[in-house]
Design brief:
64 residues, alpha+beta, two-stranded antiparallel ribbon, globular
Amino acid sequence: MADSDVSRLIGLLTLEREGTDVFRPTYYPQTGLSFVFGGQLLAQSLRAAAATVNADRPPHSLHA
């Protein structure tokens, strides 16, 4: 995996926090598609959930 691929992956998972419990993606890939793949959505959701609790409470499962 090239450095640019890793940077794009990190960009996909980067979220901007708006208020207490609202998160929005900061990067939208230019694919021409009007949907998000499930894995990307789950990863963003898990990342947002982890950002709402103390660091000593890591996620232990994910159900979808």
